[in-house]
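User: Round two. Same drill as before: sequence, then structure, for each protein.

Assistant: Same drill it is. First protein:
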Amino acid sequence: MKQKSEKVQRNTSQLLSDNAVLRNEVDDLKKSVQFHSDEVEQLRKENSDLKAQVQQLTTNQEQLMKSADDLEERHDNLEMYTRKYNLEIHGISEEDEEDLEEIVMKLGEAVGVEIEEDDIDIVHRMKVRVKRGPRPIIVRFMSHKIKSELYKAKKKLRRIAGLNDDLKAEKAIYINENLTTAKRKLFAEVRKLAKQNKWKNCWSLDGKIYVCKEKGFRPIKISTYAELL
């Protein structure tokens, strides 16, 4: 009996010892799990912070791009304002000694708009030579009224017989507004789409671009390429 009792005690002691070791291992495992859990939580927080930073950078970039677009639009509008009294006359042949003021006045007379020398501020040929035909004439009028009258009367140019001979024009004469580079490109795209889609009409008026897609529809002002989509 004594031997059995001692054996039970030894087994119990061994079990208690093994249990203590197991508890220590479990505690170590818990600590390890907690450590890794803390690391994961830290990584999640860092990832969340990075996402917030990226979002802020994206927002800042969008705001900067919008500010740049706004500044570009304001600059373009200011430049267009300085061209408010300007018109471009295309199709009139170039000569060594030409009186451009006289040509502008004759053109006005042909379409029923009385233009005097005092109505003209500056008139000259474009400095940059175009690929085909003569360089356009740019005329700046003293008043917006005269400029508008001549621009509105441009439709009559097609119906005037002998006008090309009188003004020594090789091809058809036509009048455009003196648009900025940005608006000129936008208007070219509008005309291209108008032709492709068979829209009724498109035009510019005081630097603003309009399109009428069908008869009876109200004109739509086009300020950006996005509005053409």
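Second protein:
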Amino acid sequence: MKEQKVKIILLHIMEDLQDIELFLQNISKEEFLTSSMIKKAVSMSLLNIGELSKELPAALTTKYPDIPWVSIVGLRNRTAHGYHGLDPEIIWNICNKDLKEFEKVIAYEIQQINK
């Protein structure tokens, strides 16, 4: 895959990660759990991230075995095909714990392409 296409995918992933941060800015866990609008907005961004992650080349994803690429895509599938079955507590934990390291990887890869 051409480097420019990978960069575009990474930039879109970063945009969705930043959207999630914006959606959750100054939002408590309780507010998140009771706000259908925020849960849906976050879920859509997670769906986008999963869809985009499927397009990343193995040469990139295999460099980061600690990133749960299969789970990221799996979350996309669960969101797309069964939103009401998602546990909002799990979504909250993903957004507040798991995405931090993922965002660092995405930012680093964008930086590497820009060199």
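The helical segments are 3-24, 29-34, 36-53, 58-61, 69-82, 88-114.

User: Perfect.
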